[in-house]
Amino acid sequence: MGMNSRGEIARLAEIIEPNIGVITNIHHSHIGLLGSLAEIKEAKAELIPWLNKNEANWLVLNKDDYWTPELQRRTKCRVVTFAIENQADVEAHSIVSGKGRISFTLIYRKNKIPVSIAIPGLYNIYNALAASAVSLVLGISLPDIARSLASFKLP
């Protein structure tokens, strides 16, 4: 779910009652709407109380994001992290970009698998890692995740 203002995520969470939530990052993209990164963080953090209602729920966090330690401290549910730069549960290593594709090694619990995605941009590796983290908590295997990421195409 997206966010344009404070209170929006809380309202949407009340409707859908999520059991898995993802905060990809706290970034300047919403700065015009909320005025500061701290306000953006608080708006996105509205998801956490809903996930905390059940310790079996999951929150997926970007370990490369400055605000993640604070968000993680607020969390009572299970957490899975992803990162490129820092140590996390789900990581991307050996990143190579070229010819409209990005290749990397996806690592989870010392298991490694090569991944290639047909969408450029470092931010898309983060998106792929977040999707992989959600898939892993749902019990999807690394080979199935790699195949799905390889077949993904933008509309």
UniProtKB/TrEMBL annotation:
Residues 1-134 form the Mur ligase central domain. Pfam families: Mur_ligase_M. GO terms for molecular function: acid-amino acid ligase activity; ATP binding. It comes from marine sediment metagenome. This is Mur ligase central domain-containing protein. PANTHER family: UDP-N-ACETYLMURAMOYL-TRIPEPTIDE--D-ALANYL-D-ALANINE LIGASE. InterPro entries: Mur-like_cat_sf, Mur_ligase_cen, MurCDEF_CellWall_CoF430Synth. Keywords: ATP-binding, Ligase, Nucleotide-binding. SUPFAM superfamilies: MurD-like peptide ligases, catalytic domain (SSF53623).
